[in-house]
Amino acid sequence: MAQQGKGALRILDVRSPREFVQGHIQGAVNAPLGTTGGACKDWSRETPIALVCLSGHRSQAAAAELLRMGFSDVSHLTGGMIAWRRARLPLKR
User: Fold this and answer.
1) Annotated catalytic sites, by residue?
2) Could you tell me the CATH number of the domain that includes residue 79?
3) Which pLDDT tens digit goes with each residue over 29-42?
4) Where would a tag sit more exposed on the chain, N or C end, judged by fewer CB atoms within 10 A?
């Protein structure tokens, strides 16, 4: 995972804090949907951001919000944490 900083990939997990502590991607920051824009409002608009939620629906909505805010490098994890777990990728608890 890229080190956090200007120009480095930032992972925003838009699930609830309860969901987040049950297991998240290493280095991810919890910014529940509805708070996502505020969590990154001071970041460079060129910051690459990957969004994740449980299934991909909330992260897709958050990605649209960030694009409206002017962020240019925004993606979301298709299938969310369900797909991450199915692939048996590591979780931080």
Assistant:
1) 53
2) 3.40.250.10
3) 999 999 999 999 99
4) C
